[in-house]
Design goal:
Length: 328
Amino acid sequence: MSAPAKTLYPASKKERSKIAIIGAGAVGATLAYACVIAGHASEVVLYDINKAKVEAEALDIAHGIQFTPMSSVSGSDDIEICRDADVVVITAGAKQKPGQTRLELAGATVGLMEKIIPSVLEVAPNAIYILVTNPVDVVTYVSQKISGLPFNQMFGSGTVLDTARLRWLVSKETGVAVQNIHAYVAGEHGDSEVPLWSCAEIGNVPLRHWGPTLSGGLFDNELRERIREDVVQSAYRIIEGKGATNYAVGLAVTRIIGAVLRDEQRVLTISTRLEDWEGISDVCMAAPTIVGRQGAGRVLTPPLTLAERDGLTESAQRLRQAARDLGY
């Protein structure tokens, strides 16, 4: 018997990668769309209890696969679709209403996590888990308690979006490309978040040494406070105008997923369980953190002013109390 002919195109030995998104609402569907365009994984799946909605969202995206990096998209109301996912992103939760703070969402959302986390862990125990549902810091803390997963394996999207908003606003003031703005927002993803102005740079130039802005002013305390307020109020304005934020957060979380699946070791302000970081412990909140294939890595400690450290301590106390009020 002759030996089998060798194929000119042997099957690739590269392992397939899979992203599972829990929740097919505005954020979940937009995130799936962004992931397909980015081409971070060979398979993207959507899970939602609304069968008609999740199947329709997945089908709509799948019809555009021809125009994206090669991948597959599917949706189901059966949690089995998430089996063996490399990354699980949880976007399902109570919808934030106009004027409602993120912390006011906590009760209803935590009850939902108590149902979702155990079921998805059964089918994807080894995945890296990214929490996006608001209030993301409290939800991340509670979800870790529910799951028992190590801190690196489950973390929140934190202030990655807030950091992007801050950099965009600084870019508008200076005319410099946003990619060259290096500044971070830490603490709560919410009203008590803290821009880390003391370590902000444009290129290698500290922001305090930048000089006049496009309007002729300086980055003084008044301008910094106005920018901080704009960052905090951004979500409220968008929700009031169109009902939800979805585009920028979809792109922000796609960046986090890419850092994990491509083992980029990228510094991102994700929300992790902090232990003795600037004197802060036993709380999940955002800080500059190295992100790679193992999830959340080293938490960096940038130089801070006393006012920034006090603001972060106050933010941590606020989040810790919110978790305690929910019994965690």
